[in-house]
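Consider the tokenized backbone below.
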């Protein structure tokens, strides 16, 4: 396949049969919406939504030194992840810049002679992450395998998702904690069932073979019909994660930022043994963040109706004090919202006089703490 040829997921025919509006996302033809993105968003908040996330990049790392390799290649303490659990982490450059944020699943059991891990990268960065892990594997007794074509990924998200999934599997969903995964069978299909998601709601991500994706989508659709489950596209996935204050690579996270710049220094584990890529630069970034906090990621809620977009300037007292990273109408709040990096002097919730420059007009915005939305547990 040429690098310019658009890729299609195993559910492509399903999306087209449902009348989805398709869009090119990181080289994949993906459903943007099926009908109203607002209705899809609210379905996930109140009932359940079904997503195709097969564009995400799965990379398997195996071998006796798999954990050692990942501890060296990533900023997190992967060696401490128990079998069946997952961890949010990042891969950084030597200068501390963020290459991608990742979820790493430890597969298998504790008795196995060697460990297996699945690293899930963002679609836009999957090749970059694969290349970096492959390069960093030199000298480790471990294998890095590109498994992007080995999996389709479906997600069912929302308060009704546990009941919907429970009707199709005998896996112990009640015992499955957040950021954990277990092998099981869903609608007769072997799957890795993970309690993870990017919506701010309870939910599951199901890794299956591509040839099983269409049948599983249909089974989930039928099982969720009575509970109000609807198919959901990337557009509402973005507004859901924005309300939940979750960063998106290319917006809140870039190679120009370290995890400390992004307010996510907690993912960097200096206490782990041995060196890791970026340790020296990140030690310096951590020290700088303590002495002089960098820009702070905040929430902004509009007082008017105009929607801020990424790159718009945040202003106060006639000065530029920050920049919007993501913005959209919030279906849950009923107002436009944004995430923005601002200087520390304007980061406190309720800071007066803060606005966003929208095409030359300074629109008033309220500074709020993130997230905008937190589900009731």
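A designed sequence for it:
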């Amino acid at each position: 396949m040429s690098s310019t040829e658009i890729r299609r997921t195993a559910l492509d025919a399903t999306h087209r049969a449902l009348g989805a509006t398709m869009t090119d996302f990181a080289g994949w033809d993906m459903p943007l919406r099926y009908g109203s993105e607002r209705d899809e968003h609210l379905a996930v908040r109140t009932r359940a939504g079904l997503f195709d996330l097969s564009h995400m990049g799965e990379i398997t790392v195996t071998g006796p030194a798999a954990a050692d390799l990942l501890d060296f290649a990533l900023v997190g303490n992967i060696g401490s992840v128990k079998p069946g659990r997952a961890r949010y982490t990042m891969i950084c450059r030597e200068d501390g810049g963020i290459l991608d944020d990742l979820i790493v699943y430890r597969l298998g059991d504790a008795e196995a002679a060697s460990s297996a891990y699945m690293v899930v990268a963002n679609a836009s960065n999957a090749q970059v992450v694969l290349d970096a892990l492959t390069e960093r594997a030199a000298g480790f007794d471990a294998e890095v395998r590109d498994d992007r074509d080995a999996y389709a990924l479906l997600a069912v998200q929302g308060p009704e998702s546990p009941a919907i999934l429970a009707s199709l599997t005998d896996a112990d969903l009640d015992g499955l904690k957040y950021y954990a995964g277990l092998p099981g069978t869903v609608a007769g299909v072997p799957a890795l069932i993970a309690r993870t998601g990017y919506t701010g709601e309870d939910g599951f991500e199901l890794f299956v073979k591509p040839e099983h994706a269409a049948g599983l989508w249909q089974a989930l659709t039928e099982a969720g019909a009575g509970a109000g489950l609807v198919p959901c596209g990337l557009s509402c996935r973005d507004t859901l994660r924005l309300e939940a204050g979750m960063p998106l690579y290319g917006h809140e996270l870039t190679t120009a930022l370290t995890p400390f710049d992004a307010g996510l220094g907690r993912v960097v584990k200096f206490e782990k043994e041995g060196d890791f890529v970026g340790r020296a630069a990140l030690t310096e970034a951590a020290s700088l963040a303590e002495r002089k906090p960098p820009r702070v990621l905040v929430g902004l809620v509009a007082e008017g109706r105009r929607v801020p977009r990424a790159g718009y300037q945040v202003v106060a007292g006639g000065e530029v004090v920050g920049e919007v990273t993501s913005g959209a109408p919030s279906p849950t709040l009923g107002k436009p919202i944004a995430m923005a990096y601002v200087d520390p002097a304007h980061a406190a919730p309720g800071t007066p006089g803060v606005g966003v420059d929208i095409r030359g007009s300074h629109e008033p915005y309220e500074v709020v703490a993130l997230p905008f939305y937190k589900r009731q547990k």
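Helices lie at 12-17, 37-46, 66-73, 126-136, 161-166, 213-224, 234-243, 279-291.
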